[in-house]
Amino acid sequence: MTDDLHDLRKHLQAAPAPDAEAKAWAMALAMENFDRLQGSPQAPRSSEDRPKAAAMNGVRRMLNLLTSRPALAMTTSAAALVLGVAVILPVADLRLTGPGALPASETPTAKRSTPADAAAPATAPADPALDAGTASSMAEAEPMDGITAEEFELSGEILSPNLAQPEPAAPARSEPAAKTEAPGNLALSEPIEEEAAPSAPMGLPEAEARLRLEAPAETADGAVGYIAADPVIAPLPDLVQPQVQDSEAYATAAANPVKVTAEEPVSTFSIDVDTASWAVIRSSLNLGVLPTPDQVRVEEMVNYFPYAYPAPTPEAAFSTNVSVMQTPWNTGTRLVTIGIQGALPAVADRPPLNLVFLIDTSGSMEDPNKLGLLKQSLALMLAELRPEDQIAIVAYAGSAGQVLPPTPAAERETILAALETLSAGGSTAGAEGLELAYQVAEAMKADGEISRILLATDGDFNVGVSDPEGLEAYVARQRETGTYLSVLGFGRGNLDDAVMQALAQNGNGTAAYIDTLSEARKVLVDQLTGALFPIADDVKIQVEWNPAEVAEYRLIGYETRALRREDFNNDRVDAGAIGAGRQVTAIYEVTAPGSDALRNDPLRYGAAPAEGAGGEVGFLRLRWKAPGAEVSTLAETAITGAEPASEEARFAAAIAGFGQLLQGSVYLGDWGWDEAIALAASARGEDAYGYRNEAVTLMRLAQALAAN
Amino acid sequence: MLMDTPDETLATHAAQGDRAAFATLVGRHYDRMHGLAWRLTGSKAEAEDLTQDICAALPAKLRNWRGEARFTTWLYRVVVNAAHDLRRRQATRSRAAQGWGDWELARQDEIQVQAEAAGWLAQAMTQLPPDLRDTVALVLGEEMTQADAGVVLGVSEGTIAWRMSEVKKRLRAMAREEAK
After folding, report:
1. Model-wide pTM > 0.90
2. Crossing angle, helix B103-116 and helix A182-199, to 10 degrees?
3. I need a labelling partner for B147 at 20 to 30 A (CA). Which of A193, A293, A612, B30 fits?
4. Mean pLDDT for chain B?
């Protein structure tokens, strides 16, 4: 008996030595892909390509989505109900994700084709038989689901090169078949093709899928690769994975320089409600590593925090809040902080909400960071719902079926008890669960109510294996009936961004990741009341500085959001969207003429500065489109320079200073960590949710790390 | 310095874009990945392909590296998952064939398998269901502890222990068969 094990061990350990050439090749490939991942974008991240192909990496894109329209929005207007959960990416994950490039690239595939050709005939025929017995059980009840799910990505990315194999494989297999039976031949080619699609679960990269997904720039890991990819790639039969553009990986635009007002009086940029950079920095610092300068985008740090700007007047979409203060790090300059506050439609009037939680209870969900976190998150959210809202819970895999019939949100105990009964185990059969969820949602629907399914999964939604496109089409059809679908991702950034994105997109919802309870809280709870559906698209800011008052200016951050001056009035140029109740903050450091802090000498032959304009410092123009509108609206505000400094602006300045410290900015002079921390600590304000406290803690951590 | 740096540190640096750390890491572990890939697939050609795929995707995979486990455990998991995905694809393929009711195909495959399964090992391994195969690849082939193997496979240590006893049972049965 032990003899048997002994033999097995002996044989198993006698692994054949790797072929040196194959090793060298593989390693070269690894390095090549590594380099590609590190590649920095050539061009500044234009907001123009943002909604479409902006190649943000999955997480960033999710975040973006989330922050821009994370919402459990209720409104009488249709699509508005979105339950968004924000997410934060697993720490390391996010950080790493930054580079945005999705791995499996064309190159491996292309390169591989030679070895693959050789290998495929040999292996392809052999293995199906090898595994034939287990084949069926593998797909459904794979006991290792847990891991598989997490690493699902692998199948989309890494293995996809193998998808090219069906071609070589086909001839190999059909040959023997042909000898005996002609039909076999026919039979083969089709199944094999079919198989290609399912094996790349997210890879519904076919043209159709791409079309459906195209608009949103959702970049999901791996999959998004397909989506954002150049259309040319679509028709390739062998599913070659297009290489994903890395254009947004840690957008590395150099910090905005000081501009001379006389030469370039107008500054134009798109708003950016992304907050990913903050999460990246946080995760880095918590790992004990200072973020690299290219991971720091000041505007995303600043915009991570809520600011208490006054709400707009009832008829306005925005309020604009300008604050002018002395620059903390430079006594010779002033900071002009522009805060845009989005309107918050009256949530009180929202129609009742029917929510169906469709919960993945497959084995892979068995992880405190998945099912456990999910239960906690939903319990948190429950408190935000109204008594008249209804909740139903449907589970798929594991404990399957309707776990909780439609129940008023007021019956909190019942709902929590039902959540508690969920346990992970078994395999995933998402399609059935989804159908059931739609049935339940349909049954709950009443006039004037909004129904939404919240699919919570770690991505092992292996419906994709059987019929991904059918699933999406199904979701899209259901959307027509008025039931929306949002997807909440749990667990680490696994593969499934693509499937999740595809489903959420088609379901008119949002895909979001939740990796910590505080992130669940931030978006699901803190911002749920804000009903974060987009209230304006293509929001652009243009500031014209008055050379008589401002000799030089510098926009802090937004490097990757710069727009050309003429793009401001061009409604075809895209820009960022803003969600209900959201704030966007931009900070300029401006230098008055004659100040000691001027960095450029006046031109000897320059025109004399224009007088007039009544002592205004500058003029702020804001353009946006109502959701769905083609034509933009313009709002104008003069900046007088007399606007008082607010606590909000001081905190924003502290965060901007923090970001610049991390970037090693040259503009800070002697201003250092102590000053930044003191400023942030003194401007924490009410900080009901503790975000600002967290910031101060992180700044201290960064200070300690920087001192090493 | 890099030669002595622990895997985990290298992985963290590589994840942050440190090229030298990444190169060291891949160089250090290629053989290990290949070995496990071979144990899981039972074919040198497939092991090579699989390892190459993993290498190609490793830069991206590393972004998931959170330093929570030992690097080798994490890497094993990557390899095992890649192998599972491979099997899954093959399963789909063979299911597609079955869908056409083409038993002749299956028979042809079987002939091929047997031709390849010349050695005792191949025979033994093919008689084990995949989960047991994975388990012995890790426990016997890689000499992992049952606890570590459990982490890699995402099952409890007890499950690994049970699987190993199951393997013994099956091997005994096999031996009896052969003895006949």
Report:
1. no
2. 80
3. B30
4. 77
User: Locate tokens 């078994």: which residue?
Assistant: A426
Print the SS3 string covering A607-663: CCCCCCHHHCCEEEEEEEECCCCCCCEEEEEEECCCCCCCHHHHHHHHHHHHHHHHH
Nearest CB among B19, B30, B49 relative to A23 is that of B30
Alpha helices in A422-496 (DSSP H): 430-444, 463-466, 468-480
What is the rounded CA–CA span in Å between residue A40 and residue A48? 19
Residues 6+ apart with CB under 8 A from B175: A4
Q: Indicate yes or no: CB of A188 within 8 angstroms of CB of B137.
A: no
Assembly ipTM: 0.77
Q: Does A92 sit within 8 Å of B65, measured CB to CB?
A: yes
The CATH homologous superfamily to which domain A72-92+348-526 belongs is von Willebrand factor, type A domain (3.40.50.410)
Backbone phi and psi for residue A322, each to the nearest 5 degrees, phi listed first: -110, 140
Smallest Cβ distance to B136: which of A12, A159, A181?
A12
B165 touches A at CB < 8 Å? no
Instruction: Give how far A310 is from chain B: nearest CA, Å.
Output: 40
In angstroms, the separation between the Cα of residue A116 and the nearest Cα of chain B is 7
Q: Smallest Cβ distance to B97: which of A8, A180, A188?
A: A188
Quick check: B128 contacting A, CB < 8 Å?
Answer: no
Asked if A154 lies within 8 A of B94 by C-beta distance, the reply is no
Query: What residues in A contact B131, CB-CB < 8 Å?
Result: 143-144
Q: State the angle between helix axes of A58-68 and A276-286 in degrees (0 to 180), rounded to the nearest 10.
A: 130
Which range has the worst mean pLDDT, A50-64, A400-414, A478-492, A561-575? Answer: A50-64
Q: How many folded domains does chain B comprise?
A: 2
Nearest CB partner across the interface for B31, out of A18, A38, A222: A18
Q: What angle do CA A488, A489, A491 make, to 5 degrees?
A: 145
pLDDT digits (tens, 9 = 90+) for A65-110: 333 333 333 333 333 333 333 333 333 333 333 333 334 333 333 3
Superfamily of domain A259-346+533-600+607-707 in the CATH hierarchy: Gamma-adaptin ear (GAE) domain (2.60.40.1230)
